[in-house]
């Protein structure tokens, strides 16, 4: 019997997005199917324009499939980590690292990125559906 996918907190994986339909299986979940997904699309990320530019510069133009800043997308763990490392060495700003919905990120992502690092970029659930033009501190300059 196959077990249900778990998030980084070892709880049942939360649905991430149907608009757009995301995930390796295009079912809205950032699940890898127990290793079926060779890219490990386990990170539930909210992409930014800077991340999309960075990803395109690395050979993966996600705009070509209709993504734009603010979209929710199941990201390859290695690509998220690459963006994080680029931020750490100053190649991108903090906005170049997608925010992560931890409850919708599969625990397999922890094989490459530790939970404390993901927590630095976690999405607040009361703002995970907010657009970039929402009020509050979400418009604060980096």
Please describe the structure with a list of short key phrases separated by commas or semicolons.
142 residues, three-stranded antiparallel beta sheet
Structural class: alpha+beta
| Model regions low in confidence, pLDDT < 50 over at least 5 residues | 127-142
Taking strands numbered 1, 2, ... along the chain, how are they ordered across the largest sheet?
Answer: 2-1-3
Give the strand tally. 3
Looking at the chains present, what oligomeric state does this protein adopt?
single chain
**Average pLDDT taken over every residue:** 88
Q: How many angstroms does the end-to-end distance come to?
A: 47 Å
Compute the gyration radius: what is it?
A: 14 Å
**H and E string:** EHEHEH
Give the % helix. 10-25%
- Report the sheet-strand fraction: 5-15%
Q: How many H/I helices?
A: 3
The coarse silhouette is globular
Largest sheet: 3 strands, antiparallel
Task: Give the gist of this structure.
The protein is an alpha+beta fold and 142 residues long.
SSE topology:
Blueprint: E1 43-46, H1 49-57, E2 72-75, H2 77-88, E3 99-100, H3 115-120
Antiparallel strand pairs: 1-2, 1-3
Notes on the structure:
There is one protein chain. With 142 residues, this protein is α+β, with helices and mostly antiparallel strands. The protein is globular, with a radius of gyration of 14 Å. It has helices at 49-57, 77-88, 115-120; strands spanning 43-46, 72-75, 99-100. Strands 2-1-3 form a 3-stranded antiparallel sheet. Helices cover 19% and strands 7% of the residues.
